[in-house]
Amino acid sequence: MPPALHRRIALGSCLVVVASLVACSAAGVGGIPSLSATEFDPETDVEELTVAPEVYDAQHGSSIGNETREAFETAAVEGSYEGTAPNASSGFFAFETYDFILLEGTLYEYTASVDGDSVTLTVTERTGESVADELAVPLEDASEPARAAIETGELVEAEGGPTATPIVEDDGTYYAVAPEHGSNSGTAALLLVPAAMIVAAGGGVVVVVGLLIRRRSG
């Protein structure tokens, strides 16, 4: 086989190997979330409390529908709401995860009773500090990744997924511990794109070389 063909085969093989390594790196980056800890004042930074699964963010969360939003807005003014909401029994009110809702920058504790499409909603305005006190765990009781993120001030890998203690209190200081926005999925995507390009290039080289060898053999 001519030396030029040897070089082309070697180049194609190297490109495929490099692409595989890049793809594996991307999978590794995307597989383990990184946690960050943000110090916050619950009275002025109430949006940080939405890292807790008990708090629904009506501003940035998935759409709750106009009827549901109007029900909360009415209850926020009058203290309660009685009416109907389409698919209430299978929509937002079916989620029992939430105890609080952040609506227009204000926190409300709520209870909802659903019967078919009929909804009875009661809300009570809460301060950010009172909600933080209710949801926070002491630093010594926080998960290990959460403690590490708070104590080091750096990103910490959490192999078990997002922390079960997203709101942490340490001597009167509150921290919101959450996956770093876009820290993994975005990086993984950036790595996978060049990996695909490298695979295509390497595969093309190997195919061309194979055709040349066939022609010479024929």
Automatic annotation (TrEMBL):
Pfam families found in the cross-reference section: DUF8127
Keyword vocabulary terms for this entry: Membrane, Transmembrane, Transmembrane helix
Superkingdom of origin: Archaea
Ranges annotated as spanning the membrane: 189-213
Name the record gives this protein: Uncharacterized protein
Organism encoding this protein: Salinadaptatus halalkaliphilus
Lineage, uppermost ranks: Archaea, Methanobacteriati, Methanobacteriota, Stenosarchaea group, Halobacteria
